[in-house]
UniProtKB/TrEMBL annotation:
<dbReference type="GO" id="GO:0008009">
    <property type="term" value="F:chemokine activity"/>
</dbReference>
<dbReference type="GO" id="GO:0006955">
    <property type="term" value="P:immune response"/>
</dbReference>
<feature type="signal peptide">
    <location>
        <begin position="1"/>
        <end position="20"/>
    </location>
</feature>
<keyword id="KW-0732">Signal</keyword>
<keyword id="KW-0202">Cytokine</keyword>
<dbReference type="InterPro" id="IPR036048">
    <property type="entry name" value="Interleukin_8-like_sf"/>
</dbReference>
<dbReference type="InterPro" id="IPR001811">
    <property type="entry name" value="Chemokine_IL8-like_dom"/>
</dbReference>
<feature type="domain" description="Chemokine interleukin-8-like">
    <location>
        <begin position="30"/>
        <end position="72"/>
    </location>
</feature>
<protein>
    <recommendedName>
        <fullName>Chemokine interleukin-8-like domain-containing protein</fullName>
    </recommendedName>
</protein>
<dbReference type="Pfam" id="PF00048">
    <property type="entry name" value="IL8"/>
</dbReference>
<dbReference type="GO" id="GO:0005615">
    <property type="term" value="C:extracellular space"/>
</dbReference>
Length: 77
């Protein structure tokens, strides 16, 4: 009987410390407010598209001064 509790205890510990999360609950990598001004192309370091699980699609832009700015569309002029 003690082995059963030992195994159940290990399963409980693994479940509590598991990093697996449902994608619908996680809001990381989503944009909720968007930067509306133009960003000079020379200051853009990185652009990532938001995940397909996000309610609003957009891009996360990293510049020399700011990281994680959300924009609706990236256009380079």
């Amino acid at each position: 009987m003690s082995r059963v509790f030992l195994v159940l205890g290990f399963i409980l510990i693994m479940a509590l410390y598991s990093e697996a999360k449902p994608e619908s609950i996680e809001a990381e990598g989503c944009c909720f407010k968007f930067f509306e001004s133009k960003i000079p192309p020379s200051s853009i370091k990185e652009v990532k598209k938001t995940g397909s699980h996000c309610p609003q699609q957009g891009f996360i832009v990293t510049t020399n001064r700011f990281s994680g700015m959300c924009v609706r569309q990236v256009s380079v002029n």
